[in-house]
Amino acid sequence: MTHTTDSPTASGPAGPAPDHTASPRRAFLDSGGRAPWHPLARQAFLQAVDDGWADPRRLHTEGRRAARLLDGAREAVAAALGARTEEVRFTASHTTALHAAVLGATAARRRVGGDVVVGAVERAAVLHAASDAAALHSGTRRVVPVDRSGRVDVEAFARAVAQPGVALAALQHANGEVGTRQPVTAAHEAARAAGVPLLVDAGAGIGHDAVPDAWDLLAADPADWGAPAGVGVLAARQRVRLTAPWPEDADPWAPGGVSVPAAFAAAVALQAVAADRAEQDARRRALVDRVRHTVSQIPDVEVVGDPDDRLPHVATFSFLYVDGEALVTELDRAGVAVGSGSACTAATLEPSHVLAAMGVLTHGNVRIALDRSTTGDDVDLLLAVLPGAVARVRELLGVDGL
Amino acid sequence: MTEGIPGGAEVVVDARGLRCPLPVIRLAARARDLPPGALLSVLTSDPAARHDVPAWARMRGHAVVGEEPVGEEQQDEDADVPCWRLTVRLGPAS
């Protein structure tokens, strides 16, 4: 029997899930925010396509069946996040969840003020939404700097949230580009003391790492833990006031309704990855340690992010005198898929704001996020081809003895 | 050799219009021929260079001593992209 990732239903719902890394010639190491589907996510998705295709807001048998799947998914996600079921809402995507959290929480607190405090390496969706929210409510977006490892200055964060007129503070659980964990527990204590709600973007951590119970609003990304894209998660403690930032709709947090198969698959995958998280943590942490150590032997490289207090599956490094786009292309040709935060890999001329805020080299950047299906052989393939790829790109640029 | 040292000729690398990592490469190539303590400037229109020149300087033991927007008179007539002048003082030869 043959099946490919291009025709995922070829083997039928009961067939084996495609192994995205089965080919000895390809290693997919760019799983951040869009991981290969967990086999159980695929199974759940196909089941929900059959059982949950109807509009869950309708009152007929088909609609009620879809509603049951959606309710079950919400309950399961809430349990995994340590939240009450009614505190969890599905959104259309992780980005939408972040937009709704920032715009919704600031709108509800506009009488307090319009300032929004954010860490410098928050996701672009948070930074942009914070700018919009501040502009809407005559406030200012206050950006708290990070150190060379990408960790926010928690004392500066505490001082910023204690100022009058702060509607919302946002700090990610960990940075998805460089892996560094943030001091969310201390930040949450400071925010609570100031009476300011804290939004924790846990999009890069949920499913991979223990996320402390230190949030008022929490956003999580199913596509990052091996579920289909097309659904996001926004949790808000019941004490937090929120005003939906869109025109009135029967589903205020996902106007038009969410995809039941996507939400159901997200919940099943989250339960699955929670079950063996410790084991996957140790396994992937060891692989990342190997990558960090071996890459640091290549001349003129900066391995960035905290070496210990970090996500288990993310590694990032920048090579001096290397064109990031050329390096990604060179590695892809050699069978290894990686990400990059270099400016030349983006549509704009701007490099990753994360690397820039850390003060580390932005060109020649490679970032990897290991999936649970990533093997030691995949990592070895990267480490085998990387020195040659770097040397070739440097040679093309005429770099010699610099 | 008086290039780049105080009182000597100013050394400027014009990397305007070049994208990362070329401004840093041009700067490093010029730095190779200059003595420790020399002042070396690069003109760049690449936003990434504003981050990467300081990072390069840190990795090589040099010090960034100035960053300023370049005035209109130094830009190309029809160029409307912002430009910067970054100046480094070269550290001891490694």
TrEMBL record, chain A:
Domain Aminotransferase class V residues, every copy:
29-382
List, alphabetically, the Gene3D superfamilies matched. Aspartate Aminotransferase, domain 1, Type I PLP-dependent aspartate aminotransferase-like (Major domain)
Segments carrying the region annotation (Disordered) are 1-33
Query: Which reaction is this enzyme known to catalyze?
Result: (sulfur carrier)-H + L-cysteine = (sulfur carrier)-SH + L-alanine
Organism encoding this protein? Isoptericola hypogeus
Q: Which PANTHER family match?
A: CYSTEINE DESULFURASE, CYSTEINE DESULFURYLASE FAMILY MEMBER
Q: A Pfam family matched by this chain, by name?
A: Aminotran_5
Family membership noted in the UniProt record: Belongs to the class-V pyridoxal-phosphate-dependent aminotransferase family. NifS/IscS subfamily.
Q: What is this protein called?
A: Cysteine desulfurase/sulfurtransferase TusA family protein
* UniProt keyword terms in alphabetical order: Iron, Iron-sulfur, Metal-binding, Pyridoxal phosphate, Transferase
Q: Which SUPFAM superfamilies match?
A: PLP-dependent transferases
Q: Which cofactor does it need?
A: pyridoxal 5'-phosphate
Query: Which regions are flagged for Low complexity bias?
Result: 7-18
UniProtKB/TrEMBL annotation, chain B:
Extract the SUPFAM superfamilies matched here: SirA-like (SSF64307)
Note the InterPro entries from the entry. Answer: TusA-like (IPR001455), TusA-like_sf (IPR036868)
Where would I find the UPF0033 domain in this sequence?
Answer: 13-37
Question: By its UniProt entry, which Pfam families does this protein fall under?
Answer: TusA
PROSITE patterns (UniProt xref): UPF0033
The UniProt entry's sequence similarity note says:
Belongs to the sulfur carrier protein TusA family.
Record protein name field: UPF0033 domain-containing protein
Species for this entry: Isoptericola hypogeus
Q: What is the lineage of its organism?
A: Bacteria, Bacillati, Actinomycetota, Actinomycetes, Micrococcales
